[in-house]
Write a structure and sequence with these properties.
The complex is a heterotetramer, with 2 copies of chain A (314 residues) and 2 copies of chain B (256 residues). Chain A is mainly α and 314 residues long. In chain A, 68% of the residues lie in helices and 2% in strands. Chain A has helices spanning 2-12, 25-44, 46-50, 59-84, 90-98, 116-133, 142-170, 174-193, 205-210, 218-236, 261-271, 275-288, 290-313, and strands spanning 246-248, 253-255. Chain B has 256 residues and is an all-alpha fold. In chain B, 58% of the residues are buried. Classes of the chains: A mainly alpha (314), B mainly alpha (256). Chains B, C: This is 1,2-phenylacetyl-CoA epoxidase, subunit C.
């Protein structure tokens, strides 16, 4: 109890908790769950965008998209490493993902149907991710906070890139602009859902806030996102697909219509358009690569035996 | 019709050939995205793909300038038909398993690394500048693919077998690396291009060294396939271009 | 831009939906060409593919006539974007292994056979005529795929397992067979279209009978995917259209 | 020897030899080799054309091409069946093909690079095949002769279809016509090689002719083909890629330039552009389908045991 009190005091003093510091088991568990979910999201998130790399409409866009997806893989790697400082291995986490026991962001269970979806994902999905992640740069757990600083820097680059794709489409042919509008229509609501259930229904917020893992509620973050994004949509000349959307002069905030939480629950429950496909793809990748990993291990073993033999002989 | 017609001087052809090599191989590597056998290798494959797409962009831009008909990198990449593509047959071969991809990368990089090093002394300043960057990149590709070929060849019986099969399958496409025609001859004469014959010993020594460490046997030089340089490809390239070019064929002339 | 824009009256939409079903499934079957597990099956898959492509041609032609904007079968098939395609999600799912293909064919044919039979009484004479031909064809598809599903389900442990997996994977796409919207409603009212709700019992009975003989368990009706009818597809359709449409996108408006 | 003499008399009298008739072992062997090679050619020949089914430029062409490739599979089936009457099973023949021990027509080791190749194959490859096959309709071995009658009828339909594709391209845009010329350029010489080595170098002709398996020499058939095809090329407005080609007023025949027999030898030896690909594809198809064939056998076995059980019980 004294340890716990001391721990909470450090948190309250905005000190960073480091891997070797004492921490409550529930804090560790919460972080492992959150960081690994975040890592899985990066890895699964490679798929919807990866779907357009071979069909990107210009060499510049093709290179940028490949680099972006590569960054996501890099984020996955930092985040798995941050989680590993809490005593869980990457293999365990990946196994949980493949077994369908770990979650990842539901947004990646929607399909990318046109090139404009690549713009919309950068602009909206990465935009929403940044809203969620910027406060995490000040998260109480050091390795996570530091990983998030790097991740956020790259994400905001991706977000600008996505917006620029949208801008190019909106300044392009009628067909291109229509493609952009269509993408906004399909991604808008799922992006609002990315912030999670309304505060009235959210479970983890309380302890997470006390431990400064989380600093804003779902609804607060969602509101920030809407406030930032609606004017951007207007600048693009696009219509937000929400007939109830209105600017509230009193509060200075944009107010959106009701979110279809039923759809959210279905996607979380595994019934989104691509849940099965995403996990199957990831499983197949693991399976197809098994012989390569095995070969790499066998070679490393042989090599260390050889070195040992040389050392013994010397 | 959405295809362009390129007026090919020797320089334009020569540069397009290298640009097509880089784009097609870069595209093949990009097909691995999300499918690599480990996350670290996901990063490495993307890196190599990005290097090659970058080389392709610089080379297409230069080919467009040399042609001086207003064709930018995208027009040249997206709006030439299969028969106008001039890449090596080696680089268009499908990814197959990871062994095929790594052996293909080794066979190409063992050539491209010394090639670009030699091209740094080209009398053509643009090509020399492109070469300086490409050489560093290809040195990394060579190192990386060589490490993997050694690891796979000297790994498990399965990985050895797969790597040996990849080598047998790809070997007949290595002769084309050293082919020349009148396009090359005139540019070699002018000090703009490198005579690939001068790179053959280096290439063989590099490959032999890697294969030796990989406990693999270097195949005998049998009949060698060619045709890529003059646009006679395998059936694989057409499918690659179908995907690559679909968007630009659908809305030609748009800005992306 | 090479895409066309279609003015969709309820009749045009209704006919396009059926045309897209037939073309997409026919294309999928044609992808098997040269890859069937035995030569006799090579013939059967091609037959079924040809039936479906034939149905698609008749339906596109009629949709074009109903729209009366000069769009022929090829304009409608080759020059509409993915989001304008209106086929069921079921038919665009990839071939997978032979079990997936046969289960997909069974689930579709068990619906399409009674559907076309009912459509033979449509007040629309053209649709009734198309239905008379399609019904015979779909009866054969149903018989053929049912035989295979029974054989595979009651074959070896491996074939049983693969078939069960195919069934689990494809089941969530069967709800869409029975979806209706205002397009259907107005045409059902007019006696032109059939209410799919009236076909559900027949479909279930057919599928249950086949699965029973195949020693397979009918999946519970969980959450059902939809979206194809309004152009919200899976990621698979885009790749199919890339191949299907490449030539017409490359040289639009040519005669072939 | 009396048997052999009687056999030759029947041949000379243009009688048909049937499966149960006596025949010399060498006659049987020659026929098995020739018919199975022919069957293999049909099966491997599905690949180059199959390569364009998913990309055919109109629905009509797509259906016609799929039907054509299906016909080829059908020809393979009749021909295997004809060979089976000589006491060799389809499985044995297919195994020989997959083991790389059996030959098939070298023409199928060339790639189909553009849609015009589909026209060129129909026009030229099927045209050459018909020249070879029409005399086989009168072959001394009954089952083969009857199979060839059916095959020839369908092939000549394919040939007309191929020519019509070429005609459409040649009457189309400049790009289409160029595609047609390019296809002719690539297929012309390989098609001339389809008739086999020049008579001066051919091995099998003598006995095959005596037994009326073969009725014309390679060079005779090649000349017929050239005479039939050159005027068609001219009608299309295409140039035959042979600068030495000339019409000999004295004989009334077209005379072509020298054939590069070195290329022919390389392709026969396995070094054509697609030899490896064609066999690998066929092997993979057999491998991928193994579990299906096994399941079908297992089901058939179960079923016959069930029927036997019912019969016993009754």
């Amino acid at each position: 109890a004294a340890l716990l009190q001391r721990f909470q005091e450090r948190i309250d003093a905005e000190e960073r908790i480091e891997p070797n510091d004492w921490m409550p088991e529930a804090y560790r568990r919460t972080l492992v769950r959150q960081i690994s979910q975040h890592a899985h999201s990066e890895i699964i998130g490679m798929q919807p965008e990866g779907n357009w790399i071979t069909r990107a409409p210009s060499l510049r866009r093709k290179a940028a998209l490949l680099a972006k997806v590569q960054d996501e893989c890099g984020h996955g790697l930092y985040l798995y490493a941050a989680a590993e400082t809490l005593g869980v291995s990457r293999e365990e986490m990946v196994d949980q993902l493949l077994a369908g026991k770990a979650k990842y962001s539901s947004i990646f269970n929607y399909p990318t149907l046109t090139w404009a979806d690549i713009g919309a994902i950068g602009w909206l999905v990465d935009g929403a991710a940044i809203m969620n992640q910027i406060p995490l740069c000040r998260c109480s757990y050091g390795p996570y906070a530091r990983a998030m600083i790097r991740v956020c820097k790259e994400e905001s680059f991706h977000q600008r890139q996505g917006y620029e794709i949208m801008l190019t489409l909106c300044r392009g042919t009628a067909e291109q602009k229509e493609m952009a509008q269509d993408a906004l229509n399909r991604w808008w609501w799922p992006c609002l859902m990315m912030f999670g259930p309304p505060d009235s229904a959210s479970q983890h917020t309380d302890t997470s806030t006390r431990w400064k893992i989380k600093r804003f509620t779902n609804d607060e973050l969602r509101r920030k996102f809407v406030d930032a994004t609606v004017p951007q949509a207007h600048f693009l000349g696009l219509t937000v697909p929400d007939p109830e959307l209105r600017f509230d002069e009193a509060t200075g905030h944009w107010v959106h219509g009701a979110i279809d939480w039923d759809e959210f629950k279905q996607v979380v429950a595994g019934n989104g358009p691509c849940n099965t496909q995403r996990l199957e793809r990831r499983r197949k990748t693991e399976e197809d690569g098994a012989w390569v990993r095995e070969a790499a291990r066998a070679f490393a073993d042989k090599n260390s035996r050889r070195k040992a033999a040389v050392a013994t002989a010397a | 019709m959405t295809s362009i017609r390129v007026t090919e001087t020797p320089l334009v052809t020569y540069v397009l050939r290298r640009a097509d090599d880089a784009l097609v191989l870069g595209h093949r590597l990009s097909e691995w995205c999300g499918k690599a056998p480990m996350m670290e290798e996901e990063m490495a494959l993307a890196n190599m793909g990005l290097d090659l797409i970058g080389q392709a962009r610089a080379l297409y831009t230069y080919a467009g300038e040399a042609e001086a008909a207003g064709h930018d990198e995208d027009a040249l990449a997206y709006r030439r038909d299969e028969r106008a593509y001039r890449n090596l047959l080696l680089v268009e071969q499908p990814n197959g398993d990871f062994a095929v991809t790594m052996v293909r990368q080794l066979l190409y990089a063992a050539y491209a690394d010394p090639y670009w090093r030699a091209m740094m002394s080209s009398r053509d300043a643009t090509l020399a500048a492109i070469a300086a960057k490409a050489e560093k990149e290809m040195a990394y590709h060579l190192r990386h693919s060589a490490e993997w070929v050694v690891r796979l060849g000297d790994g498990t019986p399965e990985s050895h077998e797969r790597t040996a099969r990849a080598l047998t399958m790809l070997w007949p496409y290595t002769g084309e690396l050293f082919e020349t025609d009148s396009v090359d001859d005139s540019l070699i004469e002018a000090g703009i291009a490198v005579d690939p014959a001068s790179l053959r010993d280096t290439w063989r020594a590099t490959v032999a060294d890697v294969l030796g460490r990989a406990t693999l046997t270097m195949p005998a030089d049998g009949y060698m396939q060619k045709g890529g340089r003059s646009g006679r490809h395998s059936e694989h390239l057409g499918h690659l271009l179908t995907e690559l070019q679909y968007m630009q064929r659908t809305i030609p002339g748009a800005t992306w």
